[in-house]
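User: I'm new to structure prediction. If I give you an amino acid sequence, what do you actually give back? Let's try with this one:
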Amino acid sequence: YTFEERSKAIFATDARQIADGHAAEVYLKKTDQAYWEERNKFDPASQERMNWGLLLQESIGREASNRLKVALKDADYELTHAKHEWMRSHFDFISEDGKTLVEVKNYNAMKRNQYDPDTGLMPVADSVQCIHEAAVHNVERVVLAVLFGGQELVLIDKQITEEEKERLITSEAAVWGAIQARTPPMPTTPDEARKLFPSSTDNSALANSHVEQVVAQLKTIKEHIKKLEEQEAKQQAYLQAAMKDASLLVTFDGRVLATWKSAKGSMTFDKSALEKEMPEVYQRYMKETTGSRRFLLK
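Assistant: Good question. You get back a string of structure tokens that encode the predicted 3D arrangement of the chain. For your 298 residues, that looks like this:
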């Protein structure tokens, strides 16, 4: 997908990020092409995961069809909401009668306790994705088919009401409005804040009482972190001293408690040697970079 395509609407994957509190990330992806390209540049490892995901998707879809006793069709297409041009989605599978969507996921087994087919329990991000897809495709039933660790397939049948759709549309509309107005949502991570506000001026921002309170809270948190890091270092050093040159720390019954193994050596570029031996070449390939902002509490 291109930046031009993805910047025209909020998709189901964007809805997941908004639900997880990262509306600012979605804002950046829709308004900053350089940021979008950086996030979507080719990565062999990611491509490998994507390829396996697509291969497993077909198998999961077939098994979901068998268990649901519903004939499924591939739904590899994009739709736009009937009333909201800015709301779009892609899909995995749909029943032949067009009334049920099946959304496929392939997750680590460690996530299994976050899902319960009997109660309908699932993380908010998955729930929101199902509602988003249902709203765009105008259906009331979405089945989330999750394969955990390649070992267990769980189907969660979700009935979606018009009220749920409307609540989500209202929430996403607020984010879309911010995108159109170029008014960034509140960042929830330092990285988002740095991307939204990459350079500083000589101006001063006036802190209100709430901001002052947050400053005091952050100072306390940093003090706690420092103390915990000191304790962590002492405990780790104690265990490393107990291991000496051993690569494993085990119990009497053979259970591994810790590992401390030598990493393989690697080749690195010695830029200092190049600068010393070939200074003209070194200078030729030097380039100036924009200075990053550094946040410090006073």
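You can read the tokens as a compact description of the fold. Here is one thing that stands out. The domain at 3-196 is CATH 3.90.320.10 (Lambda Exonuclease; Chain A).
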